[in-house]
Amino acid sequence: MSDNNDRYVIGVDFGTLSGRAVVVRVSDGAELGSAVHEYTHAVIEERLPGTAIRLGPDWALQSPEDWRDVLRVAVPKALAVAGVSASDVIGIGTDFTACTMLPTTADGVPLSELHPDRPHAWPKLWKHHAAQPQADRINAVAAERGETWLPRYGGKISSEWEFAKALQVLEEDPETYHAAARWIEAADWIVWQLTGVESRNVCTAGYKGIHQDGRYPAEGFLTALHPDFGGFPATLGQELAPLGGLAGRLSEEAARWTKLPEGIAVSVGNVDAHVTAAAADAVRPGQMVAIMGTSTCHIMPSDELAEVPGMCGVVRDGIVPGLWGYEAGQSAVGDIFAWFVETSVPASYAESAAEAGISVHEYLTSLAERQAVGAHGLVALDWQGGNRSVLVDHNLSGVIVGQTLATRPEDVYRALIEATAFGARVIVETFEAAGVPVGEFVVAGGLLKNSFLMQVYSDVLRRPLSAIGSEQGPALGSAIHAAVAAGAYADITEAAAAMGKRTPNAYVPDAGRADAYDRLYAEYRRLHDHFADGGLLHRLRAIRNEATA
Protein backbone atom coordinates (compact mmCIF):
# COMPACT_ATOMS: atom_id res chain seq x y z
CA MET A 1 0.00 0.00 0.00
CA SER A 2 2.88 2.38 0.67
CA ASP A 3 3.64 2.30 -3.04
CA ASN A 4 0.19 3.82 -3.67
CA ASN A 5 0.83 6.91 -1.55
CA ASP A 6 2.56 8.70 -4.39
CA ARG A 7 0.50 7.29 -7.24
CA TYR A 8 -2.60 8.84 -8.73
CA VAL A 9 -5.44 8.02 -11.09
CA ILE A 10 -7.86 10.22 -12.99
CA GLY A 11 -11.59 9.66 -13.28
CA VAL A 12 -13.59 11.39 -16.00
CA ASP A 13 -17.38 11.62 -15.77
CA PHE A 14 -19.27 12.51 -18.96
CA GLY A 15 -22.65 13.84 -17.90
CA THR A 16 -25.67 15.29 -19.65
CA LEU A 17 -24.48 18.90 -19.82
CA SER A 18 -20.78 18.74 -18.94
CA GLY A 19 -17.81 16.51 -18.29
CA ARG A 20 -15.67 16.57 -15.15
CA ALA A 21 -12.27 15.17 -14.29
CA VAL A 22 -10.93 14.44 -10.82
CA VAL A 23 -7.40 13.53 -9.70
CA VAL A 24 -7.46 10.87 -6.98
CA ARG A 25 -4.74 9.43 -4.74
CA VAL A 26 -4.62 5.66 -5.09
CA SER A 27 -3.86 4.88 -1.46
CA ASP A 28 -6.97 6.42 0.14
CA GLY A 29 -9.22 7.95 -2.52
CA ALA A 30 -8.36 11.53 -1.59
CA GLU A 31 -9.61 13.89 -4.30
CA LEU A 32 -6.83 16.39 -4.92
CA GLY A 33 -8.16 18.43 -7.81
CA SER A 34 -11.04 18.59 -10.26
CA ALA A 35 -12.21 20.54 -13.29
CA VAL A 36 -15.45 20.81 -15.26
CA HIS A 37 -15.94 21.51 -18.95
CA GLU A 38 -19.41 22.57 -20.09
CA TYR A 39 -20.45 21.08 -23.43
CA THR A 40 -20.59 23.70 -26.15
CA HIS A 41 -23.71 22.16 -27.70
CA ALA A 42 -25.25 20.89 -24.42
CA VAL A 43 -28.34 18.85 -25.33
CA ILE A 44 -29.44 19.27 -28.95
CA GLU A 45 -33.24 19.21 -28.83
CA GLU A 46 -34.66 21.70 -31.32
CA ARG A 47 -32.48 21.89 -34.44
CA LEU A 48 -29.18 20.50 -35.72
CA PRO A 49 -26.19 22.78 -35.03
CA GLY A 50 -25.42 25.16 -37.86
CA THR A 51 -28.53 24.20 -39.83
CA ALA A 52 -32.22 25.04 -40.04
CA ILE A 53 -33.12 21.35 -39.69
CA ARG A 54 -35.67 20.99 -36.91
CA LEU A 55 -35.92 17.91 -34.69
CA GLY A 56 -39.15 16.19 -33.76
CA PRO A 57 -40.78 15.86 -30.34
CA ASP A 58 -38.81 13.95 -27.68
CA TRP A 59 -35.50 14.14 -29.55
CA ALA A 60 -32.23 14.64 -27.65
CA LEU A 61 -28.82 14.53 -29.36
CA GLN A 62 -25.22 15.35 -28.48
CA SER A 63 -21.96 16.23 -30.21
CA PRO A 64 -18.92 13.91 -30.00
CA GLU A 65 -16.60 16.90 -30.24
CA ASP A 66 -17.94 18.12 -26.91
CA TRP A 67 -16.78 14.86 -25.35
CA ARG A 68 -13.30 15.13 -26.86
CA ASP A 69 -13.07 18.66 -25.50
CA VAL A 70 -13.51 17.30 -21.97
CA LEU A 71 -10.32 15.29 -22.46
CA ARG A 72 -8.50 18.29 -23.89
CA VAL A 73 -9.67 20.82 -21.28
CA ALA A 74 -10.87 19.24 -18.03
CA VAL A 75 -8.17 16.59 -17.62
CA PRO A 76 -5.13 18.93 -17.90
CA LYS A 77 -6.88 21.54 -15.76
CA ALA A 78 -7.68 19.03 -13.00
CA LEU A 79 -4.06 17.92 -13.01
CA ALA A 80 -2.89 21.52 -12.68
CA VAL A 81 -5.35 22.22 -9.84
CA ALA A 82 -4.18 19.10 -8.00
CA GLY A 83 -0.53 20.08 -8.34
CA VAL A 84 0.26 16.48 -9.26
CA SER A 85 2.95 15.56 -11.74
CA ALA A 86 1.59 13.76 -14.78
CA SER A 87 4.43 11.24 -14.42
CA ASP A 88 2.86 10.01 -11.17
CA VAL A 89 -0.49 9.17 -12.83
CA ILE A 90 -0.84 5.43 -13.46
CA GLY A 91 -4.29 5.21 -15.02
CA ILE A 92 -7.42 6.90 -16.28
CA GLY A 93 -11.02 5.70 -16.10
CA THR A 94 -14.19 7.07 -17.66
CA ASP A 95 -17.93 6.80 -17.25
CA PHE A 96 -20.82 8.02 -19.37
CA THR A 97 -24.54 8.52 -19.36
CA ALA A 98 -25.97 5.17 -20.44
CA CYS A 99 -28.04 4.76 -23.60
CA THR A 100 -26.01 7.50 -25.28
CA MET A 101 -25.46 5.73 -28.56
CA LEU A 102 -23.86 6.65 -31.86
CA PRO A 103 -23.36 5.15 -35.32
CA THR A 104 -19.79 5.18 -36.60
CA THR A 105 -17.55 3.92 -39.36
CA ALA A 106 -15.45 0.79 -38.85
CA ASP A 107 -12.63 2.90 -37.41
CA GLY A 108 -14.86 4.83 -35.02
CA VAL A 109 -15.55 8.06 -36.90
CA PRO A 110 -19.01 9.32 -35.86
CA LEU A 111 -21.38 9.52 -38.82
CA SER A 112 -22.51 12.91 -37.53
CA GLU A 113 -19.09 14.27 -38.47
CA LEU A 114 -19.46 12.90 -42.01
CA HIS A 115 -23.13 13.75 -42.47
CA PRO A 116 -23.91 16.66 -40.11
CA ASP A 117 -27.18 17.42 -41.92
CA ARG A 118 -28.75 14.04 -41.08
CA PRO A 119 -30.41 13.98 -37.64
CA HIS A 120 -30.15 10.20 -37.29
CA ALA A 121 -26.37 10.35 -37.83
CA TRP A 122 -25.94 12.16 -34.52
CA PRO A 123 -25.49 10.45 -31.13
CA LYS A 124 -28.79 9.94 -29.35
CA LEU A 125 -28.64 10.95 -25.69
CA TRP A 126 -30.24 8.81 -22.98
CA LYS A 127 -33.20 11.22 -22.83
CA HIS A 128 -34.01 10.76 -26.52
CA HIS A 129 -37.48 9.21 -26.16
CA ALA A 130 -38.67 9.43 -29.77
CA ALA A 131 -38.17 5.68 -30.23
CA GLN A 132 -41.11 4.76 -27.98
CA PRO A 133 -43.14 3.24 -30.88
CA GLN A 134 -40.19 0.98 -31.71
CA ALA A 135 -39.80 0.01 -28.03
CA ASP A 136 -43.50 -0.80 -27.83
CA ARG A 137 -43.20 -3.11 -30.85
CA ILE A 138 -40.06 -4.78 -29.51
CA ASN A 139 -41.87 -5.51 -26.26
CA ALA A 140 -45.01 -6.79 -27.95
CA VAL A 141 -43.14 -9.11 -30.33
CA ALA A 142 -40.84 -10.36 -27.56
CA ALA A 143 -43.82 -11.14 -25.33
CA GLU A 144 -45.67 -12.87 -28.15
CA ARG A 145 -42.64 -15.02 -29.00
CA GLY A 146 -41.84 -15.74 -25.36
CA GLU A 147 -38.29 -14.40 -25.59
CA THR A 148 -36.50 -15.63 -22.47
CA TRP A 149 -34.53 -12.42 -21.98
CA LEU A 150 -37.60 -10.21 -21.56
CA PRO A 151 -38.30 -11.03 -17.86
CA ARG A 152 -34.75 -9.99 -16.98
CA TYR A 153 -35.78 -6.46 -17.94
CA GLY A 154 -38.95 -6.42 -15.89
CA GLY A 155 -41.08 -7.38 -18.89
CA LYS A 156 -40.29 -4.30 -20.98
CA ILE A 157 -37.28 -2.70 -22.62
CA SER A 158 -37.05 1.09 -22.80
CA SER A 159 -37.18 3.51 -25.70
CA GLU A 160 -33.87 4.83 -24.36
CA TRP A 161 -32.02 1.63 -25.18
CA GLU A 162 -29.86 0.55 -28.09
CA PHE A 163 -32.25 -1.69 -30.00
CA ALA A 164 -35.18 0.75 -29.95
CA LYS A 165 -32.99 3.65 -31.08
CA ALA A 166 -31.34 1.65 -33.85
CA LEU A 167 -34.70 0.36 -35.09
CA GLN A 168 -35.96 3.93 -35.23
CA VAL A 169 -33.00 4.86 -37.45
CA LEU A 170 -33.57 1.84 -39.70
CA GLU A 171 -37.21 2.73 -40.20
CA GLU A 172 -36.82 6.50 -40.55
CA ASP A 173 -33.39 6.81 -42.25
CA PRO A 174 -32.30 3.44 -43.68
CA GLU A 175 -29.39 5.03 -45.55
CA THR A 176 -27.80 6.16 -42.29
CA TYR A 177 -28.56 2.82 -40.64
CA HIS A 178 -26.80 0.85 -43.37
CA ALA A 179 -23.85 3.28 -43.40
CA ALA A 180 -23.05 2.42 -39.77
CA ALA A 181 -20.36 -0.25 -39.49
CA ARG A 182 -20.55 0.12 -35.71
CA TRP A 183 -23.26 1.08 -33.24
CA ILE A 184 -21.57 1.91 -29.98
CA GLU A 185 -22.38 3.35 -26.57
CA ALA A 186 -20.50 6.57 -25.88
CA ALA A 187 -19.07 4.83 -22.79
CA ASP A 188 -17.13 2.54 -25.13
CA TRP A 189 -16.52 5.12 -27.86
CA ILE A 190 -14.63 7.44 -25.52
CA VAL A 191 -12.39 4.55 -24.43
CA TRP A 192 -11.78 3.84 -28.14
CA GLN A 193 -10.69 7.49 -28.48
CA LEU A 194 -8.30 7.10 -25.54
CA THR A 195 -6.72 3.81 -26.58
CA GLY A 196 -7.19 3.51 -30.32
CA VAL A 197 -8.65 0.05 -29.62
CA GLU A 198 -12.34 -0.82 -29.79
CA SER A 199 -13.78 -2.51 -26.69
CA ARG A 200 -17.26 -3.20 -25.31
CA ASN A 201 -18.08 -3.28 -21.62
CA VAL A 202 -20.32 -5.85 -19.99
CA CYS A 203 -22.41 -3.18 -18.23
CA THR A 204 -23.90 -1.26 -21.17
CA ALA A 205 -24.13 -4.42 -23.26
CA GLY A 206 -26.17 -6.13 -20.57
CA TYR A 207 -28.43 -3.32 -19.41
CA LYS A 208 -28.87 -1.35 -22.64
CA GLY A 209 -27.96 -3.90 -25.33
CA ILE A 210 -30.08 -6.87 -24.19
CA HIS A 211 -27.02 -9.11 -23.87
CA GLN A 212 -27.92 -12.07 -21.62
CA ASP A 213 -26.33 -15.46 -21.09
CA GLY A 214 -23.59 -14.74 -23.60
CA ARG A 215 -25.69 -13.57 -26.54
CA TYR A 216 -27.83 -10.83 -28.01
CA PRO A 217 -31.44 -11.40 -29.15
CA ALA A 218 -31.75 -14.00 -31.89
CA GLU A 219 -31.80 -13.13 -35.58
CA GLY A 220 -35.30 -14.56 -35.96
CA PHE A 221 -36.68 -12.17 -33.39
CA LEU A 222 -34.95 -9.20 -34.97
CA THR A 223 -36.14 -9.97 -38.49
CA ALA A 224 -39.66 -10.27 -37.12
CA LEU A 225 -39.29 -6.59 -36.22
CA HIS A 226 -37.83 -5.61 -39.61
CA PRO A 227 -36.37 -7.76 -42.42
CA ASP A 228 -33.10 -5.74 -42.36
CA PHE A 229 -32.65 -5.77 -38.58
CA GLY A 230 -31.26 -9.29 -38.22
CA GLY A 231 -27.63 -8.25 -38.55
CA PHE A 232 -27.75 -5.47 -35.97
CA PRO A 233 -25.86 -7.39 -33.22
CA ALA A 234 -22.87 -7.75 -35.54
CA THR A 235 -22.33 -3.99 -35.24
CA LEU A 236 -22.26 -4.11 -31.41
CA GLY A 237 -19.13 -6.18 -30.80
CA GLN A 238 -19.19 -9.69 -29.42
CA GLU A 239 -16.33 -9.87 -26.93
CA LEU A 240 -17.31 -8.11 -23.71
CA ALA A 241 -14.74 -6.75 -21.27
CA PRO A 242 -15.17 -7.05 -17.47
CA LEU A 243 -15.61 -3.98 -15.29
CA GLY A 244 -12.36 -2.90 -13.71
CA GLY A 245 -10.48 -4.54 -16.57
CA LEU A 246 -7.71 -3.05 -18.67
CA ALA A 247 -9.21 -1.79 -21.95
CA GLY A 248 -5.86 -0.70 -23.34
CA ARG A 249 -3.11 1.88 -23.00
CA LEU A 250 -3.29 5.63 -23.53
CA SER A 251 -2.48 6.35 -27.16
CA GLU A 252 -0.03 8.97 -28.41
CA GLU A 253 -2.88 11.19 -29.66
CA ALA A 254 -4.87 10.92 -26.43
CA ALA A 255 -1.71 11.64 -24.43
CA ARG A 256 -1.39 14.94 -26.33
CA TRP A 257 -5.03 15.77 -25.54
CA THR A 258 -4.86 14.96 -21.85
CA LYS A 259 -1.22 15.86 -21.14
CA LEU A 260 -0.86 12.44 -19.50
CA PRO A 261 1.92 9.90 -20.14
CA GLU A 262 1.43 7.72 -23.17
CA GLY A 263 0.93 4.08 -22.24
CA ILE A 264 -0.80 4.45 -18.86
CA ALA A 265 -3.70 2.12 -18.09
CA VAL A 266 -7.18 2.91 -19.44
CA SER A 267 -9.95 1.03 -17.69
CA VAL A 268 -12.95 -0.56 -19.39
CA GLY A 269 -15.82 1.88 -19.97
CA ASN A 270 -18.71 2.11 -17.56
CA VAL A 271 -21.99 3.87 -16.81
CA ASP A 272 -22.08 6.90 -14.52
CA ALA A 273 -24.58 5.34 -12.13
CA HIS A 274 -23.05 1.89 -11.94
CA VAL A 275 -19.53 3.12 -11.32
CA THR A 276 -20.77 5.28 -8.44
CA ALA A 277 -21.37 2.16 -6.35
CA ALA A 278 -17.61 1.81 -5.98
CA ALA A 279 -17.24 5.46 -5.00
CA ALA A 280 -19.74 4.90 -2.16
CA ASP A 281 -18.10 1.61 -1.14
CA ALA A 282 -21.52 0.05 -1.78
CA VAL A 283 -20.61 -2.99 -3.82
CA ARG A 284 -22.01 -5.68 -1.53
CA PRO A 285 -25.39 -7.44 -1.84
CA GLY A 286 -28.38 -5.35 -0.76
CA GLN A 287 -26.71 -1.94 -0.96
CA MET A 288 -28.91 0.17 -3.23
CA VAL A 289 -27.27 3.34 -4.52
CA ALA A 290 -29.61 6.07 -5.80
CA ILE A 291 -27.69 8.48 -8.00
CA MET A 292 -29.91 11.55 -7.91
CA GLY A 293 -29.47 14.33 -10.42
CA THR A 294 -31.44 15.31 -13.52
CA SER A 295 -32.79 11.76 -13.31
CA THR A 296 -32.26 9.02 -10.73
CA CYS A 297 -30.70 5.64 -11.33
CA HIS A 298 -31.02 2.92 -8.67
CA ILE A 299 -28.18 0.39 -8.66
CA MET A 300 -27.87 -2.65 -6.41
CA PRO A 301 -25.63 -5.73 -6.36
CA SER A 302 -27.21 -8.98 -5.19
CA ASP A 303 -26.38 -12.64 -4.92
CA GLU A 304 -30.02 -13.40 -5.81
CA LEU A 305 -31.38 -13.70 -9.36
CA ALA A 306 -35.05 -12.72 -9.58
CA GLU A 307 -37.41 -11.29 -12.13
CA VAL A 308 -38.39 -7.89 -10.77
CA PRO A 309 -41.33 -6.27 -12.63
CA GLY A 310 -40.52 -3.01 -14.38
CA MET A 311 -36.81 -3.01 -13.62
CA CYS A 312 -34.31 -1.70 -16.15
CA GLY A 313 -32.52 -5.02 -15.95
CA VAL A 314 -30.53 -7.55 -14.03
CA VAL A 315 -27.10 -8.41 -15.41
CA ARG A 316 -24.47 -10.85 -14.20
CA ASP A 317 -21.27 -8.91 -13.35
CA GLY A 318 -23.09 -5.68 -14.26
CA ILE A 319 -21.85 -3.70 -11.24
CA VAL A 320 -19.06 -5.84 -9.81
CA PRO A 321 -17.80 -9.18 -11.10
CA GLY A 322 -19.33 -12.18 -9.36
CA LEU A 323 -22.70 -10.66 -8.42
CA TRP A 324 -25.95 -9.94 -10.16
CA GLY A 325 -26.44 -6.24 -10.70
CA TYR A 326 -29.91 -4.70 -10.66
CA GLU A 327 -30.88 -1.36 -12.18
CA ALA A 328 -34.04 0.70 -11.87
CA GLY A 329 -34.64 4.38 -12.36
CA GLN A 330 -36.75 7.49 -12.59
CA SER A 331 -36.53 9.34 -15.90
CA ALA A 332 -36.78 12.79 -14.38
CA VAL A 333 -36.13 14.08 -10.87
CA GLY A 334 -33.95 17.18 -10.84
CA ASP A 335 -35.28 17.90 -14.32
CA ILE A 336 -38.79 18.16 -12.84
CA PHE A 337 -37.73 20.73 -10.26
CA ALA A 338 -35.83 22.69 -12.92
CA TRP A 339 -38.85 22.61 -15.26
CA PHE A 340 -41.10 23.97 -12.54
CA VAL A 341 -38.73 26.80 -11.63
CA GLU A 342 -38.18 27.75 -15.27
CA THR A 343 -41.85 27.75 -16.26
CA SER A 344 -44.05 28.36 -13.23
CA VAL A 345 -42.38 30.53 -10.60
CA PRO A 346 -43.42 34.21 -10.41
CA ALA A 347 -40.85 36.95 -10.82
CA SER A 348 -41.49 38.05 -7.24
CA TYR A 349 -40.07 34.75 -5.98
CA ALA A 350 -36.93 35.20 -8.06
CA GLU A 351 -36.57 38.72 -6.65
CA SER A 352 -36.95 37.47 -3.08
CA ALA A 353 -34.38 34.76 -3.71
CA ALA A 354 -31.94 37.31 -5.15
CA GLU A 355 -32.41 39.60 -2.15
CA ALA A 356 -31.64 36.66 0.15
CA GLY A 357 -28.58 35.72 -1.91
CA ILE A 358 -29.87 32.22 -2.67
CA SER A 359 -31.17 30.35 -5.70
CA VAL A 360 -34.86 30.07 -6.52
CA HIS A 361 -34.63 26.36 -5.68
CA GLU A 362 -33.26 27.19 -2.24
CA TYR A 363 -35.92 29.83 -1.70
CA LEU A 364 -38.76 27.47 -2.61
CA THR A 365 -37.24 24.80 -0.39
CA SER A 366 -37.07 27.22 2.55
CA LEU A 367 -40.79 27.92 2.16
CA ALA A 368 -41.82 24.33 1.50
CA GLU A 369 -39.99 22.85 4.49
CA ARG A 370 -42.04 24.98 6.91
CA GLN A 371 -45.21 23.10 5.98
CA ALA A 372 -46.68 20.13 7.79
CA VAL A 373 -46.93 16.95 5.73
CA GLY A 374 -50.08 17.17 3.58
CA ALA A 375 -50.77 20.84 4.31
CA HIS A 376 -50.64 21.73 0.61
CA GLY A 377 -53.49 19.33 -0.21
CA LEU A 378 -51.70 18.01 -3.31
CA VAL A 379 -50.44 14.77 -4.75
CA ALA A 380 -48.45 14.54 -7.98
CA LEU A 381 -47.15 11.90 -10.38
CA ASP A 382 -43.44 12.31 -11.18
CA TRP A 383 -43.82 11.45 -14.87
CA GLN A 384 -42.89 14.71 -16.57
CA GLY A 385 -40.07 12.76 -18.25
CA GLY A 386 -42.07 9.56 -18.57
CA ASN A 387 -41.76 6.56 -16.26
CA ARG A 388 -38.65 4.39 -16.36
CA SER A 389 -39.52 2.10 -13.44
CA VAL A 390 -41.79 0.36 -12.84
CA LEU A 391 -44.04 1.13 -15.82
CA VAL A 392 -41.33 1.57 -18.49
CA ASP A 393 -43.36 4.01 -20.55
CA HIS A 394 -41.86 7.28 -21.71
CA ASN A 395 -45.13 8.44 -23.24
CA LEU A 396 -46.58 8.95 -19.77
CA SER A 397 -46.69 12.52 -18.47
CA GLY A 398 -46.93 14.37 -15.20
CA VAL A 399 -50.11 14.85 -13.18
CA ILE A 400 -50.81 17.24 -10.27
CA VAL A 401 -54.05 16.78 -8.35
CA GLY A 402 -55.63 19.01 -5.70
CA GLN A 403 -54.74 22.52 -6.88
CA THR A 404 -57.00 25.39 -5.85
CA LEU A 405 -56.90 29.16 -6.21
CA ALA A 406 -55.02 29.19 -2.90
CA THR A 407 -52.23 26.87 -4.13
CA ARG A 408 -48.82 28.56 -4.01
CA PRO A 409 -45.60 27.76 -5.92
CA GLU A 410 -43.94 26.31 -2.82
CA ASP A 411 -46.90 23.93 -2.43
CA VAL A 412 -46.42 22.53 -5.90
CA TYR A 413 -42.64 22.43 -5.47
CA ARG A 414 -42.99 20.37 -2.30
CA ALA A 415 -45.54 18.09 -3.93
CA LEU A 416 -43.12 17.45 -6.80
CA ILE A 417 -40.31 16.60 -4.35
CA GLU A 418 -42.64 14.21 -2.55
CA ALA A 419 -43.76 12.66 -5.84
CA THR A 420 -40.18 11.70 -6.72
CA ALA A 421 -39.78 10.18 -3.24
CA PHE A 422 -43.00 8.21 -3.71
CA GLY A 423 -41.67 6.98 -7.06
CA ALA A 424 -38.52 5.76 -5.31
CA ARG A 425 -40.65 3.95 -2.72
CA VAL A 426 -42.54 2.14 -5.50
CA ILE A 427 -39.19 0.89 -6.81
CA VAL A 428 -37.94 -0.28 -3.40
CA GLU A 429 -41.23 -2.04 -2.62
CA THR A 430 -41.21 -3.74 -6.02
CA PHE A 431 -37.73 -5.12 -5.40
CA GLU A 432 -38.64 -6.47 -1.99
CA ALA A 433 -41.92 -7.96 -3.20
CA ALA A 434 -39.91 -9.88 -5.80
CA GLY A 435 -37.65 -11.35 -3.11
CA VAL A 436 -34.67 -9.01 -3.58
CA PRO A 437 -34.14 -7.25 -0.22
CA VAL A 438 -32.84 -3.69 0.01
CA GLY A 439 -30.64 -3.60 3.08
CA GLU A 440 -29.21 -0.10 2.78
CA PHE A 441 -30.32 2.91 0.75
CA VAL A 442 -27.32 5.04 -0.25
CA VAL A 443 -27.74 8.45 -1.87
CA ALA A 444 -25.31 10.05 -4.31
CA GLY A 445 -25.50 12.80 -6.92
CA GLY A 446 -26.10 16.51 -7.04
CA LEU A 447 -29.44 16.48 -5.19
CA LEU A 448 -27.70 15.23 -2.05
CA LYS A 449 -26.95 18.87 -1.23
CA ASN A 450 -30.67 19.53 -0.57
CA SER A 451 -31.05 18.32 3.01
CA PHE A 452 -34.81 18.90 3.05
CA LEU A 453 -35.25 16.68 0.00
CA MET A 454 -33.11 14.00 1.63
CA GLN A 455 -35.20 14.11 4.80
CA VAL A 456 -38.39 13.76 2.75
CA TYR A 457 -36.95 10.65 1.10
CA SER A 458 -35.98 9.18 4.48
CA ASP A 459 -39.48 9.85 5.87
CA VAL A 460 -41.27 8.52 2.78
CA LEU A 461 -39.10 5.40 2.54
CA ARG A 462 -39.30 4.89 6.32
CA ARG A 463 -35.62 4.00 6.42
CA PRO A 464 -32.27 5.67 7.10
CA LEU A 465 -30.33 7.10 4.19
CA SER A 466 -26.59 6.69 3.88
CA ALA A 467 -24.73 9.39 1.96
CA ILE A 468 -21.77 9.12 -0.37
CA GLY A 469 -18.76 11.06 0.90
CA SER A 470 -17.91 12.66 -2.42
CA GLU A 471 -19.47 15.34 -4.60
CA GLN A 472 -17.91 13.66 -7.62
CA GLY A 473 -19.28 10.14 -7.24
CA PRO A 474 -19.07 8.94 -10.86
CA ALA A 475 -15.63 10.48 -11.44
CA LEU A 476 -14.33 8.99 -8.19
CA GLY A 477 -15.80 5.63 -9.14
CA SER A 478 -14.09 5.79 -12.52
CA ALA A 479 -10.82 6.59 -10.78
CA ILE A 480 -11.30 3.54 -8.55
CA HIS A 481 -11.81 1.38 -11.63
CA ALA A 482 -8.67 2.91 -13.14
CA ALA A 483 -6.70 1.90 -10.03
CA VAL A 484 -7.86 -1.69 -10.49
CA ALA A 485 -7.03 -1.64 -14.21
CA ALA A 486 -3.56 -0.32 -13.37
CA GLY A 487 -2.97 -3.20 -10.94
CA ALA A 488 -2.95 -1.15 -7.73
CA TYR A 489 -5.74 -3.33 -6.26
CA ALA A 490 -6.79 -6.90 -6.88
CA ASP A 491 -10.44 -6.09 -7.62
CA ILE A 492 -13.18 -3.47 -7.36
CA THR A 493 -14.30 -4.54 -3.89
CA GLU A 494 -10.81 -4.12 -2.45
CA ALA A 495 -10.31 -0.79 -4.21
CA ALA A 496 -13.72 0.52 -3.12
CA ALA A 497 -12.99 -0.33 0.53
CA ALA A 498 -9.77 1.70 0.37
CA MET A 499 -10.87 4.57 -1.86
CA GLY A 500 -14.67 4.79 -1.51
CA LYS A 501 -16.51 7.02 0.97
CA ARG A 502 -19.89 6.65 2.68
CA THR A 503 -21.62 8.07 5.79
CA PRO A 504 -24.15 5.56 7.21
CA ASN A 505 -27.44 6.86 8.65
CA ALA A 506 -26.87 10.41 7.43
CA TYR A 507 -30.65 10.93 7.51
CA VAL A 508 -33.05 9.11 9.83
CA PRO A 509 -36.85 9.01 9.41
CA ASP A 510 -39.17 10.84 11.77
CA ALA A 511 -41.95 8.47 12.87
CA GLY A 512 -44.69 11.11 12.87
CA ARG A 513 -43.89 12.43 9.42
CA ALA A 514 -43.47 8.89 8.11
CA ASP A 515 -46.98 8.00 9.29
CA ALA A 516 -48.40 11.11 7.63
CA TYR A 517 -46.57 10.29 4.40
CA ASP A 518 -48.08 6.80 4.40
CA ARG A 519 -51.49 8.43 3.87
CA LEU A 520 -50.21 10.57 0.99
CA TYR A 521 -48.36 7.62 -0.51
CA ALA A 522 -51.58 5.62 -0.56
CA GLU A 523 -53.16 8.38 -2.65
CA TYR A 524 -50.09 8.45 -4.90
CA ARG A 525 -50.46 4.71 -5.51
CA ARG A 526 -54.12 5.13 -6.41
CA LEU A 527 -53.23 7.86 -8.89
CA HIS A 528 -50.25 5.84 -10.16
CA ASP A 529 -52.32 2.74 -10.82
CA HIS A 530 -55.20 4.70 -12.35
CA PHE A 531 -53.02 6.36 -15.01
CA ALA A 532 -50.63 3.41 -15.47
CA ASP A 533 -52.38 2.11 -18.59
CA GLY A 534 -51.46 5.36 -20.31
CA GLY A 535 -54.85 5.73 -22.03
CA LEU A 536 -55.56 9.40 -21.36
CA LEU A 537 -51.92 10.46 -21.18
CA HIS A 538 -51.06 8.70 -24.44
CA ARG A 539 -54.01 10.34 -26.20
CA LEU A 540 -52.88 13.76 -25.03
CA ARG A 541 -49.33 13.03 -26.22
CA ALA A 542 -50.63 11.98 -29.64
CA ILE A 543 -52.69 15.17 -29.95
CA ARG A 544 -49.62 17.23 -29.03
CA ASN A 545 -47.41 15.43 -31.53
CA GLU A 546 -49.91 15.91 -34.32
CA ALA A 547 -50.30 19.59 -33.50
CA THR A 548 -46.55 20.24 -33.47
CA ALA A 549 -45.56 18.02 -36.43
Automatic annotation (TrEMBL):
Please state what the protein is called: Ribulokinase
Q: In the UniProt record, which is one GO cellular component term?
A: cytoplasm
Keyword set for this entry? Arabinose catabolism, ATP-binding, Carbohydrate metabolism, Kinase, Nucleotide-binding, Transferase
Q: What is its EC number?
A: 2.7.1.16
* Taxonomic source organism: Planotetraspora phitsanulokensis
Recorded GO MF terms = ATP binding; D-ribulokinase activity; ribulokinase activity
Residue ranges of every copy of the Carbohydrate kinase FGGY C-terminal domain listed in the record = 289-486
Protein's pathway:
Carbohydrate degradation; L-arabinose degradation via L-ribulose; D-xylulose 5-phosphate from L-arabinose (bacterial route): step 2/3
Please indicate which superkingdom the organism of origin belongs to: Bacteria
Record InterPro entries: ATPase_NBD, Carb_kinase_FGGY, FGGY_C, Ribulokinase
Q: Tell me the gene name.
A: araB
**Biological process terms in GO annotation:** L-arabinose catabolic process to D-xylulose 5-phosphate
NCBIfam families for this protein: L-ribulokinase (TIGR01234), PRK04123.1 (NF003154)
By sequence similarity, the record places it as follows: Belongs to the ribulokinase family.
Q: What class of enzyme is it?
A: transferase
Per its record, the protein catalyses: L-ribulose + ATP = L-ribulose 5-phosphate + ADP + H(+)
The answer, when asked if Nucleotide-binding is one of the entry's keywords, is yes
